């Protein structure tokens, strides 16, 4: 029948992952790390955390085997321990959304905050397979509206880096006679919603990738890295 004490120990060890995931800020850090390796300073700023608080959360994730570290001079960089961690995070998000009404309400409220000029219609969204087909013909311009560091870590091949905070003064760089498709971190990211609103307000034919970089990578689609274009 097996040793009851050893079985209890096994499940207690498994629970270390669950305990590490049981905090909203740590999930937000995993969401950010799903875009690529980041320094503690970058993670703290983006997640609106103090440096020591961010470090403490990251240590919990490291102790649970969910992230790894790399030291560069005095700076520490964190990364997911593997894409299986990104898949675990995405599945947790899906299960929570499917089974907890409060999660759906919170998701909708947050995404609605990025609509401003109104929620994109189905016609204003592009599926991943559709984007691949259109990009192959050169019929669209794809822009990555995440921070430049995230673009450098991983981006859709051929996409231009146009961080959201730079979009207004760079609109003149974008073609007026071609559809523009904006994308950001993932299905729960509002940056692309905001970008589409700004572009359409200027009369440009803009659409949004239906999800984002997290889902693109999990689908094992082509990815480039390097300096922003």
TrEMBL record:
Q: Which InterPro entries match?
A: ArsR-like_HTH, HTH_ArsR_DNA-bd_dom, Metal_resp_trans_reg, Rhodanese-like_dom, Rhodanese-like_dom_sf, Thiosulphate_STrfase_CS, WH-like_DNA-bd_sf, WH_DNA-bd_sf
- Tell me which domain of life the UniProt entry assigns to the organism this sequence originates from: Bacteria
Q: Does the keyword Transcription apply?
A: yes
Any one Gene Ontology MF annotation carried by this entry is: DNA-binding transcription factor activity
- Tell me where in this chain the HTH arsR-type domain is found: 6-100
**Keyword Transcription applies:** yes
Q: Which SUPFAM superfamilies match?
A: Rhodanese/Cell cycle control phosphatase, Winged helix' DNA-binding domain
Q: Which PROSITE patterns match?
A: HTH_ARSR_2, RHODANESE_1, RHODANESE_3
Q: Which CDD domains match?
A: HTH_ARSR, RHOD
UniProt domain Rhodanese: residue ranges: 136-225
Fetch the Pfam families from UniProt. Answer: HTH_5, Rhodanese
**Keywords annotated in UniProt:** DNA-binding, Transcription, Transcription regulation
Cite the Gene3D superfamilies for this sequence: Rhodanese-like domain, Winged helix-like DNA-binding domain superfamily/Winged helix DNA-binding domain
**Entry's PANTHER family?**
ARSENICAL RESISTANCE OPERON REPRESSOR ARSR-RELATED (PTHR43132), HTH-TYPE TRANSCRIPTIONAL REGULATOR KMTR (PTHR43132:SF8)
What is the name listed in the Swiss-Prot or TrEMBL entry for this protein?
Answer: Metalloregulator ArsR/SmtB family transcription factor
Naturally occurring in which organism (per UniProt): Lolliginicoccus lacisalsi
